[in-house]
Design goal:
Blueprint: E1 8-12, E2 17-20, E3 33-37, E4 42-43, E5 47-50, E6 56-65, E7 71-82, E8 91-98, H1 100-103, H2 106-116, E9 121-124, E10 128-130, E11 133-137, H3 143-148, E12 151-152, E13 155-156, E14 160-161, E15 166-167, H4 169-176, E16 183-187, H5 190-193, H6 199-223, E17 228-232, H7 241-248, H8 254-272, E18 280-283, H9 285-288, H10 305-320
């Protein structure tokens, strides 16, 4: 049994923060008992939830027990709640690279909506979407797509440099005349991991994914080491098998994809967490999205408006967490 909690979880005063239990364990959560150890928030049946009223830092520990009440494992994270007023008058620029969940333009819409009433401002850059809601989301794309394909599924890859036949962030910025972003968010993983049908296969795939992630991150950092590369933790799927049937027939099952997702997420956190000195960060987008009410009843991996908002909120919290 394992738990996929990162070292830090970000929040903001007057904004709801959640940890949904089914997203952080690799087995069916109904077979286990959970105990949340924290002086803050509320332990409910499917989540820990908290509406902070002041800037603060505190630890939260999630403990798992078997059906005999015997302790199995625990994981502790530091929760960082930032004040709403931080960053007053500051403008930050970001680009969000991703798959169909970014291409829906709803995560970035939520980010912009949050900042529209904030004392701090956000500018998004990108070749897709409609200004100011710009991004680099492409349905069906994986990390490898951004490295190996000039065109995929009829969509042009603006990061691809034909001279080097690979991802080239300098080429992307210079070709489009963009300003250097403060943040690059990488929001991928669903298409990379969806079809694998065994633990051996998914673990082999993950090591290839990490090579692609490492190349992309290193390439961005070589262009400008001050850019914060933020890795959105791949979101969970709908908990309902009926949604998988409606979306994919018999192509994939909910339990297999949940396992693929967990193995990837755990490896991703273990590999990239704690690397802030390199300006590489884990953004725990997987924790805040409700795998029940955050998805349509007939869609396996694409959230509804509520789910997209929950993802966008976490990215908003993360950006605000760096300001004083």
């Amino acid at each position: 049994m394992e738990i996929s909690l990162p070292a830090k979880i970000f929040g903001l005063v007057k904004h709801e923060l959640n940890i949904y239990f089914s997203t952080i364990v690799n087995k069916e959560i109904s077979n286990y008992y959970i105990k949340v150890k924290s002086d803050k928030g509320t332990h409910q049946s499917r989540r820990w939830t908290y509406m902070p009223t002041e800037a603060e830092k505190f630890e939260i520990t999630i403990e798992l027990y078997n059906d005999n009440g015997e302790f199995i494992i625990s994981k502790t994270s530091l929760v960082i709640i930032q004040a709403e007023a931080v960053g007053r008058g500051i403008i930050k620029t970001a680009v969000v690279i991703g798959d169909s969940t970014v291409n829906a333009s709803k995560i970035t819409k939520r980010m912009l909506n949050n900042f529209s009433t904030d004392s701090m401002s956000l500018e998004l850059i990108g070749s897709r979407g409609l200004a100011p809601n710009l991004h680099e989301g492409r349905g069906g794309w994986a990390a490898a797509s951004y490295r190996t394909d000039l065109e995929c599924d009829g969509k042009i890859n603006p990061f691809y440099n034909e001279e080097t036949s690979d991802f080239d962030f300098a080429h992307y910025i210079n070709s489009n005349g963009y300003r250097v972003p403060d943040y690059v968010f990488i929001h991928l993983g669903i298409n990379d991991t969806f079809l694998e049908e065994s633990d051996v296969a998914i673990k082999e795939k993950i090591e290839k994914m990490l090579l692609d992630y490492d190349f992309i991150i290193k390439n961005i950092k070589s262009y400008n080491p001050n850019i914060k590369v933020a890795l959105d933790v791949t979101i969970p799927s709908n908990v309902n098998q009926d949604a998988f049937g409606a979306s994919y027939g018999c192509l994939q099952t909910q339990w297999r994809y949940k396992r693929n997702n967990f193995i990837w997420v755990k490896r991703m956190i273990d590999y990239y967490d704690g690397r802030g000195e390199e300006n590489i960060y884990i953004v725990p987008t997987h924790l805040n999205i409700d795998p029940v009410s955050g998805f349509p009843v007939d869609n396996a991996v694409h959230p509804n408006e509520h789910g997209y908002n929950q993802i966008g909120d976490v990215i908003y919290f993360f950006i605000k967490s760096f300001e004083e």
